[in-house]
Amino acid sequence: MSNFMPFDINCHDKLHEQFQYLFEPELINELCANGKLKKYLAEEVIVEIGQSIDYFPILVSGSVKVLTEDKNGDELLLYYLEVGDTCAMTLNCCTKNTKSTIRAVVENDTELLFIPIEKMEDWMIKYRSWRNYTFESYSIRLNELISAIDTLVFSSLEERLINYLRDKAWVNKSNILKISHLEVARELHSSRVVISRLMKKLENEGLVKQSRNKIEFLEFSAK
Questions:
Q1: For domain 155-221, which CATH number applies: 3.30.2010.30, 1.10.10.10, 3.30.70.1290, 1.10.3720.10?
Q2: Does the N terminus or the C terminus of the chain have fewer Cβ atoms within 10 A?
């Protein structure tokens, strides 16, 4: 991980604002003292499959999508990360000193705070809030993985597509999704032709409006 930003008073204030309800002030001060902040632009890859993990990430702003890959190199979306979240798969790699099994890609411009692995282990003993955060993160991500598997196995592709659009709109806080049918197909492990047919069906049902490389998810705007 390179091009880290040095901490300044603005970064310190930002962490206190974002994490005051998660961590005690002493831990936030340690996050400021030991963490390294880095900014990423949309579509940048943060972690690649097979990469060694040297730091534990916490999302300070923006959003990230986490994907896996089958033996043929086809991607499958697992879950999204938002402010305050971390990735359970990365946690696992940190604690077991193994290589990444996921790809993490920036959904919106994002800031990540990277914590040295040795500090992560020290804080498990020192701070109850850190232990709770770590265990809860494991639990949340595990439930999301189970949900993703259930959806893949038991739900129709149309249901998966609607859930995908709903989740993406929620993460982006917008019903306007700048994404192509091919990108949707890749993340849902389908083909562009099938997705285009389903999108046309959803459009006829009044759930979406479409233009080139842009989808308007009307269910989200109705809220």
A1: 1.10.10.10
A2: C
In the predicted structure, residue 97 carries a pLDDT above the cut 60? yes
> What element of type H or E holds 100?
none
CATH 1.10.10.10 fits 9-152, yes or no: no
The model carries a pTM of 0.74
The per-residue pLDDT for range 128-174, each reduced to its tens digit, is 999 999 888 888 877 877 777 777 766 788 888 999 999 999 988 89
- Rounded to whole angstroms, the Cα distance separating 92 from 134 reads 11
The token pair that represents 34 in the structure block:
């030991």
Spans of all domains in the chain:
9-152, 155-221
